[in-house]
Amino acid sequence: MTDTLLGRFIVLDGPEGAGKTTQVDRLVRRLRKAGRQATSVRDPGSTPVSERIREILLDTGLPDMDARTEVFLYMASRAEMVARIVRPALEVGLVVVSDRFVSSTVAYQGYAGGLDPGPIWDLGRTACGGLSPHLTVILDLPVEAGFGRLRGERDRIESKDPAYHEKVRQGFLAMAAERPEAFVVVDAARPADAVAEDIWEAVQRVL
Ligand code: TMP
User: Fold this and answer.
1) Is the dihedral of CA 57, 62, 65, 69 positive or negative?
2) Into how many domains does the chain fold?
């Protein structure tokens, strides 16, 4: 289904504090400079309904949530984001860069939360009407280094223990190793300029 779309769908994902948000902005600016129409989204979020679901997911005032509940809330937020923003943009030929996507649910709720990754991938395809990224770039760095970069109060997911976040990191690396045609791993512990160069090189190959 993704192949019938004019545009390109790129995902930046990875553990906490990897600099995804900065790199998403840089990539969109670079794409535009290169003459491509480009836009970005953040998952969960980007539409009124998705942002409301995001608030629930990250609310530290709520008690711990079952991993399955988290899966369905992330998927609901994502379904709305894809239907309202991502798919329409891809249909008219834009490059859409997403800050996280289904790969995060597989890493966090799957590898770290204890759920089987296979059904999460399936659910992701259902929620997104068969859409999958042309490329997912994993910005990888050690858990401690990532947390050292975080500023402000930790949200509900960031507050989970270091062992959980180590499983998240290993989950991202495992999925990238399994599907090298769809994933690229970039060492995000380096300065932002070097990281941006590696991302650009990988993205150019799928444009
Ligand atoms: P962000 O802070 O990178 O925007 O992501 C929000 C938090 O939600 C972050 O701690 C990672 C977590 N998360 C999941 O647990 N599962 C998911 O499917 C997604 C997209 C994010």
Assistant:
1) negative
2) 1
